[in-house]
Amino acid sequence: MGRLINSTGDSGGVSCGQSISAALQVRTAIIEMSGFHGSHCLTVKQSLSVAGVLLSAAFGLSACTETSENRSSALAQSAEQHTPGRVTIFGQYPPEEQEKFEKTILPFEEETGIDVVLEFENNFNSLLQMRIAAFNKPDLAILPQPGLMSDLAVDGQLVPITEAVDIHTLRRAYSDIWLDLGEVNGEIYGLWNRVSVKSLVWYRPAAFEAKSYDIPKTWPELMALSDRIVADGGTPWCIGLESGAATGWPGTDWIEDILLRMAGPETYSQWINHQIPFNSPPVLAAFEEFGNLINKPKYVDGGPENVLKTGYAESAQGIFNNPPDCYLHRQGNFIANFFPEDKDPRIDYDVFLLPPINENFGTPLLIAGETIVMFNHTPESAALMRYLATPTPHRIWAGLGGFISPQKDVPLEAYPDPVTQTIAQILADAEVIRFDGSDLMPGYVGSDLFWRSMVNFVSGQSAKEVTTEIDQGWP
Fold first, then answer.
1. Cα end-to-end distance, the chain, whole Å
2. Largest alpha-carbon pair distance within the chain?
3. Is 287 exposed, middle or buried (0-12, 13-18, 19+ CB in 10 A)?
4. Closest C-alpha to 406, from 173, 250, 239
5. Residue 282 and which of 257, 316, 346, 438 are 20 to 30 A apart at CA?
C-alpha cells in the first residue's frame, strides 16, 4: 500500500542549472525552514549533504552555468539513490485528496508489488527546487503549473514520458489539446492527471424557480439577470478573494475568463506570453468589465470590502441560505468540495457555463490542472507512468468525487453525480480551451504581482494603475 511521507527538510540548495527565480525561491524556503521544523526522515549522510548545500545557497556560492559533466554527475547521484521495488511521487495535496490519490494507485501496487511512496508537502515549489539541488529528486512529481514543467524540461531535469509510455497509447488516451499542453520543444514531458474546469457559474435551482429566473445564454442576459435580481430585492453575486498568502487569485480567474470572451484566445495567448503589454487596451477592458460588476451597487454580497475578507472556499455558501445571500457564484468545479455535506447536486445546486461576451469567439473554456512528470527513469517509475496513463486510476478517482479527468476513456457514468457529469461533458464539448493565465506567467507575476494587484484593484486602484504596475514588474 502506498505510504505517505512528509518530506519537509529533505533537501536543499541551489544548483548551477537553476534560474535566478528558482534560487530566490530556495533562499526564501531556507529562511522559512530555519531549524528544519516539521517531520522528516534523513540519514546521517543525507543530513550532512543537505546542510552543505543549504549553506552554499545561503551564502550565494552557487555557480551560474552548468556543464555536461555537472549534469552527468547530478544524474548519477540521483540514480544511486534509487531503491529497487520502490517509486516516489512528490506533490501537494490536502489530506482528503491524498487519500483519494492513494486509492487510485492501490491496484498498481497489488499487481506489481512495487511500493509507491507518496510525499506531499504544502511548500511544494521551494522544496522541489531544493531536492533537485541536493540530487534527491523524486521519481515522479505532480505539478500544478505547465510553466514549471516547461522550466524543468528546458533545464534538463525531466525525462520525456514517451520513454516510458508509447506515443500511440498516449494518443489513444488523450486528445491533442492535452498532449500539446504537455509538450516542450517537441517532446512530451507531462501526463495530465486531472482538470479544474473554471468557467462555471453555480446557482440553486429552487431559488431560480421561485423567481422564474432563466439560465442566461449571453453576457448581456447575465447582466440583465443580475439587474432583475437587484430589482427583486436580492443580491446577484457572492465573491470571495481571501486565500491566505494567495489572496487575490480568484480575481485573476475573473479577468482571464472575461478577457478570453472579450478579446479571444489569440489575444489571451499573446497576453500570458507578454507579447502584448499587461496594460494593453484588451486587458484594461477586461479589468474594467470586472470592476463594473464588483462595484455596481447591490451586485455583490457585502460589497467590495466584504469580497476581500471572504475566503474563496466559503464564498459560495450564500446561495444555500433562505433567502439567498446571493444567487450566482463563479468558480471552478473544485468549489463543490466545500459545499455542505447535506446538499444534493441538481436539487440544491447546479452549474451553467459562463456565457460568451463577443459572439465571434464563442464560449472558450478556462481550465487549470496538474500534470505528472518523471525525474528518474527507472523500471518502477516507468511502470507507474504506464499505469497512470490508463483509464483505471482516472475512473477510480472520478467515482470518489472532486475530480474531472482529461482522459478520453473515462465515461460520464464514472462520475458520482449529475452535476459532475455535466461539468465533464462541458469539458468534452469545449472547442476552445485555455489554461489559467496566472499559472503560465512567470511566478513573480502570476503568483505574486497579479494576485496583489487584484486586491489593490478591488480596494480602489484603477485598472490602468494596477496593470501598469504588473507590466513594469514583468521579469
1. 44
2. 72
3. buried
4. 173
5. 316
CB atoms within 10 A of CB 266: 9
For each successive 10 residues of the chain (475 residues), what is the average pLDDT? 51 34 37 31 31 34 38 44 88 90 97 96 88 96 90 95 96 93 95 96 98 98 98 98 94 98 98 97 98 97 95 95 97 93 95 96 95 97 98 96 93 96 94 92 90 97 98 94
Name residues whose C-beta falls within 8 Å of residue 220's C-beta, 6 or more positions apart in sequence: none
Return the axis-axis angle of helices 281-295 and 450-459, rounded to nearest 10°.
50
Of the candidates 231, 199, 26, 2, the one whose C-alpha atom is nearest the C-alpha of residue 106 is: 2
Q: Which three cell numbers stand for residue 369?
A: 490542472
Contact 457, 253 (CB under 8 A): no
Helices (H), 296-343: 303-309
Which residue bears the cell 455542505? 340
CA distances from 360 to 218, 230, 316, 356 (A): 12, 30, 31, 9
Pairing of strands 115-120, 365-374: unpaired
Give the CA angle between residues 337, 332, 391 to the nearest 5°. Answer: 75
Grid cell 478520453 in the structure block, residue: 408
CA 349 remoteness from chain centre? 24
Residue entry with cell 500544478: 144
Amino acid at 363: T
pLDDT digits (tens, 9 = 90+) for 248-285: 999 999 999 999 999 999 999 999 999 999 999 999 99
CB 97 within 8 A of CB 402: yes
| 8 SS3 class | coil
Phi, psi of 340 (to 5 degrees): -55, 140
- Residue 84 amino acid letter: P
* 191 bridge partner residues: 372
Q: What is the DSSP string of 27-48?
A: HHHHHHTTT--S-----HHHHH
Burial of 342 (C-beta count, 10 Å sphere; 0-12/13-18/19+) = exposed
Q: What pLDDT shows up at residue 200?
A: 98
